[in-house]
Design goal:
This protein is α/β, with parallel strands linked by helices. Helices cover about 40% and strands about 25% of the residues.
């Protein structure tokens, strides 16, 4: 009943994704997934390796084209070839396992890159006036510095990513995604590439975003984090959502035998 009072942000219907391995073999990764994500929800996706978690997330961000089904974002089907995917991607932030920062650009340049490119494009691209381009860059820089202050890394603005720790790189990657002011954040195992002592600083930042009401979908192996932050947990196995519920329901009263087996190994 609680979700009915909220706006539907992403509606997934009959989502399928398969990859052709060779002429004779097709690998089905996602199988007929239906799910609705509401504004303000924090959803954690758990499950064994190879269950389709990351592929599901990449489909939500249109990094993978669905084989079948629909993904409605704010009422438009992202699986429709006529829809401007890039326009919607502006509102869907994505943070990966690997940080994907540009090593030839400073930290602040990494954060400014997408907002500046988008701003100049909207202002006329190559034909945008120099004064307008300058204003766009100044605004992007001001916002980037605010984000760096927020994550406690303002002093790293002019250094290159190669000088940063893994935890710092991932926080910068999160700031870069936030620079586009997205309506939803997707996290694909954001701590899996980090040394154990660096995990906490990244999880703390994600918790801050959750507490501020950001809609987020997180693929994670951090069960304690999922229990603490998420209001819904999805368990995926074999390319399907085989059980979903509150953290209390999933971790204390699992019904699916496969989920019970999975939790017995990770808790």
């Amino acid at each position: 009943m609680e979700n009915q009072a909220k706006n539907e942000l992403i509606v997934v219907s009959g989502l399928c994704k398969s990859f052709r391995i060779n002429k004779k073999k097709i690998l089905n990764v996602l199988n007929d997934i239906d799910y609705t994500i509401y504004e303000g929800q924090k959803i954690a996706i758990i499950g064994p390796s190879g269950s389709g978690k990351s592929t599901f997330l990449r489909c939500l961000n249109c990094m993978e084209d669905p084989t079948g089904g629909s993904i409605f974002f704010e009422g438009e089907d992202l699986a429709d070839m006529k829809v401007d995917i890039n326009r919607h991607r502006e509102n869907i932030g994505m943070v990966f396992q690997q940080f994907n920062l540009f090593n030839n650009k400073t930290v602040i340049q990494n954060i400014m890159l997408a907002p500046v490119h988008l701003g100049i494009k909207k202002a006329g691209g190559l034909f945008a006036k120099p004064a307008v381009k300058k204003q766009i860059k100044e605004q992007a820089k001001e916002n980037a510095l605010k984000l760096l202050r927020r994550i406690g890394l303002e002093e790293k603005a002019n250094v290159y990513p190669s000088t940063l720790s893994g935890g710092q790189k991932q926080r910068i990657a999160i700031a870069r995604a936030l620079a586009m002011n997205p309506k939803v954040m997707l996290f694909d195992e954001p701590t899996s590439a980090l040394d154990p002592e660096m995990v906490g600083e990244v999880l703390d930042l994600i918790k801050e975003l959750a507490n501020e009401g950001m809609t987020m979908v997180i693929v994670t192996h951090e069960m304690g984090f999922a229990r603490e932050v998420a209001d819904r947990i999805l368990f995926m196995d074999g390319g399907r959502i085989t059980e979903e519920g509150t953290p209390e329901e999933i971790f204390k009263h699992p019904k699916n035998p496969r989920l019970q087996e999975f939790l017995s190994k990770v808790l």
